[in-house]
Design goal:
A five-stranded parallel sheet has the order 2-1-3-4-5, with helices on both faces. The protein has a five-stranded antiparallel sheet with strand order 7-6-12-11-10. Strands 13-14-15-17-16 form a five-stranded mixed sheet, with helices on one face. The chain is elongated. Helices cover 43% and strands 21% of the residues.
Length: 502
């Protein structure tokens, strides 16, 4: 049976309401201190509200999110005593003289709202029991309930966790942040009765941009906290959420810890890969500089000296002994060829003009010319139109490195290149019959001066949405498989899909 608390200074009204409501509800004519007792509906008049409005607001906050209604009994003449703050504690109003039917209807509506909110509270357990996250209820810093997921992860029965500080579940370094977060969650109530206007508290998905306090003077808090959950075995990263609730008529917090270990691992992997790519870019720049120094720079220096010798001979009138223009032209041609080779290594223009399929055929022909002892077989069955533009440079770079490794380090007599459809996606296979190696023990410093090694091949494929597989063993050759699903492609503005500036 619902319990109604009457705080009415007017004895006639108090007796009348007790008589009208007593048959259907438990009615208590209480005193001011009765506001701290259990009840389902409070009915106050003007004098009682003036004395107790702050206590009523506090009691409503303690009950939150369960609805605790208050009904105000007033005459039309004294309604003006209500301030803005007092109104925030009132859920309904009835004027005197009181009509019995109206009273009963208003009381029933308010109590129905109360019952609905209590049912929602009972669903907390139901939700927690079904949650895939770790859920527990906290009162005064102690665990009073834990869902099966947390009990299973902790390897303890509820009795083993009940009464313990929830901080024992977390790394010691996080204790201060967790305490502050839970306290802020309990205090936060945007636009509540004590924080109206610009003084309200707010939630923030991160730290406040305006210092420790919000720009309007309220306290900002994070919506969630990323901390380490200490469990038997390997600790895991969790996103911790706190929701203030009422649990058995006392303020509490429902704590939910979502496992984000995989997300953290992916973020760390992304940072590692970004660092590797930056390192690879710097390595490639260094190799280009060395290439220019060893070839173009020295050849241009020799050509310059040849021109100076010819100029000096002409000045002495001894042109016959001077180097010929043909030899100078030949030196310049060699320089031009070398510059074109370096440009092709930086960005193969044939991809733009001929397509990736023809470019791979040309690469295979170049390998035959450079290494006459190697037989190269190609099976490039994939139509050019089926290959996304943003994947073409990735395919080329992986093939370039794999062919170079097979020829220069693998001791291969035969190399095979396959480019084919894979259930709507793309599969590239490059295999050789060379000396092979152990992929597990292979270091990352296994590239020549035109590539960046097995590690970068793997990362290029991974970052483009593909899967990289390498099969090899000593004496058994090597097989590289790079596969991309149909949806795999870089964004249009990705740096790996753009040629260098003209």
């Amino acid at each position: 049976m619902n319990k109604i608390l009457l705080l009415l200074e007017n004895h006639a009204n108090r007796n009348l309401l007790a008589d009208w409501l007593g048959g259907r509800y438990e009615v208590v004519a209480g005193e001011d201190r009765s506001l701290s007792d259990r009840f389902d509906l409070g009915i106050l008049d003007g004098q009682a509200l003036e004395r107790n409005w702050e206590q009523a607001l506090r009691r409503k906050k303690v009950e939150h999110p369960v609805f605790l209604p208050f009904l105000f009994v007033a005459s039309r003449r004294n309604i003006s005593i209500l301030t803005r703050q007092m109104w925030k504690g009132i859920d309904d109003l009835i004027y005197t003289p009181i009509d019995k039917a109206e009273l009963q209807a208003r009381v029933e509506v308010l109590l129905r709202g109360r019952r609905y909110s209590v049912e929602l509270e009972e669903r907390y357990h139901h939700i927690a029991e079904r949650s895939a996250a770790c859920v527990y209820i906290l009162q005064e810093g102690r665990i009073v309930y834990a869902n099966p997921v947390l009990l299973q992860k902790a390897g303890l029965p509820l009795e083993g966790l009940s009464g313990r500080s929830h901080l024992t579940l977390y790394e010691k370094k996080d204790h201060g942040r967790i305490d502050a977060y839970v306290a802020a969650a309990a205090a936060a109530d945007c636009g509540d009765s004590e924080s109206s206007g610009n003084g309200g508290n707010c939630e923030n998905s991160g730290n406040c941009e305006n210092g420790e306090n919000g720009e309007n003077g309220g306290h900002c808090r994070e919506k969630s906290l990323e901390v380490t959950l200490r469990l038997p075995g390997e600790p895991c990263w969790v996103s911790l959420h706190a929701m203030p609730i009422v649990y058995f008529d006392r303020p509490a917090a429902m704590m939910t810890a979502y496992d984000i270990s995989e997300r953290r691992r992916m973020h760390q992997e992304l940072r590692r890969l970004s660092g590797k790519l930056l390192s690879a870019q710097e390595s490639e720049r260094k190799l280009i500089a060395m290439d220019l120094h060893d070839t173009v720079a020295q050849s241009l220096t020799a050509t310059k000296m040849t021109v100076e010798i010819r100029a000096a001979a002409i000045k002495r009138g001894n042109e016959e002994s001077a180097p010929s223009l043909e030899s100078i032209a030949s030196g310049l041609k060699n320089n031009i060829d070398e510059v074109r080779r370096i440009m092709a290594d930086l960005w193969p223009r044939s991809i733009d003009h001929l397509g990736i399929v023809k470019t791979l055929e040309n690469r295979a022909a170049d390998l035959k010319d450079a290494f006459p002892g190697i037989r190269v077989e190609t099976r490039l069955d994939l139509p050019e139109s089926d290959i996304p533009d943003n994947l073409k440079i990735v395919i080329y770079r992986v093939a370039q490195e794999a062919l170079s490794n097979a020829a220069k380090h693998g001791g291969a007599g035969m190399v095979r290149i396959v480019l084919e459809d894979a259930d709507g996606g793309i599969r590239m296979i490059i295999s050789d019959d060379g000396v092979g190696f152990d992929p597990e023990s292979a270091g990352e410093d296994n590239s020549d001066r035109t590539g960046v090694g097995l590690s970068s091949m793997r990362e290029r494929v991974y970052l483009s949405g593909g899967v990289f597989t390498l099969r090899s063993s000593p004496g058994q050759g090597a097989e590289l498989i790079a596969e991309w699903p149909e949806s795999a492609a870089y964004p249009d503005d990705d740096f790996m899909s753009r040629p260098p500036s003209e």
